[in-house]
Write a sequence for this structure.
């Protein structure tokens, strides 16, 4: 498992757990606001990084190269 | 209702309705241009599709800032949902969110390393100089109603009638602000097709589209709340559809202005709006 995937799983689990905490425990308002502002975007971001397709290893270099450097 | 559930529900509604409205806008534009156009749910489908497609991270990207800045865009619009439909808080907070949005445009453009992004980054500064004066609308609203709190503005309108009728030039200024944020707008110089996707070039597309949908919904929601007020959910939906269709007409019939013209047009509209509104308030 590469580093990006490992970090994404970690962030996803923490984010979903925080949202569930706010849903079930009903903490003070400011904690709920903090959790929603930080962890809703992180949940979606980490979900996106986990769900996106992964290309072939040998093609990766071509995709990452910025073709317009030098302009 | 549990506060977290309320926030999640409002964010989901903002995303779904915003996506459908952006799809509707493309449909109306296509029909005006005598094309069948994509289905109305196309924007929503694209958002899901891009979540499943591979994203490559360019070598020139400033990691991890490159990823963090896309998250920032989502953070500010989720915050906008909390300030707006959830708590009906202060308009000043909404102004702060909009100002951060301009910073996000600027930094997203510079973080990918793409020359298109960099051009968009410079244009974001240009357009900030033009769009921020339009926020003088807040001062006019404050002078008229004596408050910046959304719920109090709604109460004021219930007693005195819609602000759209008493300060129409302020409404026009806010409408220009909405117009400048719509896709294919004459003022959308940061995302003009001459620079591919502007500051969005190379970034996580699905994630950006998610935030954009919320952003579109929120801009319309704020407009309807501040200038008409006291609407029920159906009223909001009808209002949003009408404004989106109107925006689509303008976007379909006008070219994207060059940056100088875009800035000057918006500054001129801001000047007319501010001076005209002050005169209307005095008499």
């Amino acid at each position: 498992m590469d580093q990006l995937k490992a970090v994404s799983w970690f962030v996803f689990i923490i984010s979903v757990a925080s949202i569930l905490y706010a849903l079930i425990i009903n903490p003070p308002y400011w904690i709920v606001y903090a959790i929603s502002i930080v962890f809703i975007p992180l949940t979606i971001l980490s979900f996106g990084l986990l769900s996106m397709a992964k290309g072939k290893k040998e093609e990766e270099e071509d995709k990452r190269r910025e073709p317009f450097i030098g302009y | 209702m549990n506060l977290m559930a309320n926030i999640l529900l409002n964010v989901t509604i903002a995303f779904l309705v915003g996506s459908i409205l952006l799809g509707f806008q493309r449909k109306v534009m296509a029909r005006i241009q005598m094309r069948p156009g994509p289905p109305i749910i196309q924007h929503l489908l694209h958002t899901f599709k891009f979540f499943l497609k591979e994203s490559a991270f360019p070598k020139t990207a400033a990691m991890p800032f490159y990823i963090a800045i896309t998250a920032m865009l989502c953070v500010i619009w989720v915050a906008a949902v909390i300030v707006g439909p959830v708590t009906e808080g202060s308009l000043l907070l909404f102004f702060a969110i909009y100002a951060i949005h301009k910073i996000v445009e600027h930094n997203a453009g510079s973080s990918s390393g793409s020359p298109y992004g960099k051009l968009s980054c410079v244009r974001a500064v240009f357009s900030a100089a033009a769009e921020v004066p339009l926020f003088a609308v807040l001062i006019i609203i404050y002078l008229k109603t004596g408050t910046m709190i959304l719920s109090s503005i709604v109460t004021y309108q219930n007693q005195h009638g819609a602000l759209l009728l008493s300060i129409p030039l302020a409404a026009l200024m806010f409408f220009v602000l909405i117009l400048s944020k719509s896709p294919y707008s004459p003022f959308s110089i940061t995302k003009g097709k001459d620079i591919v996707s502007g500051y969005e070039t190379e970034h996580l597309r699905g994630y950006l589209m998610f935030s954009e949908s919320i952003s579109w919904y929120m801009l319309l929601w704020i407009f309807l709340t501040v200038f008409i007020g006291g609407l029920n959910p159906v009223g909001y939906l009808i209002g949003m559809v009408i404004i989106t269709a109107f925006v689509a007409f303008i976007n379909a019939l006008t070219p994207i202005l060059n940056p100088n013209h875009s800035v000057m047009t918006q500054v001129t509209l801001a000047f007319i709006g501010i001076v005209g509104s002050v005169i209307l308030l005095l008499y």
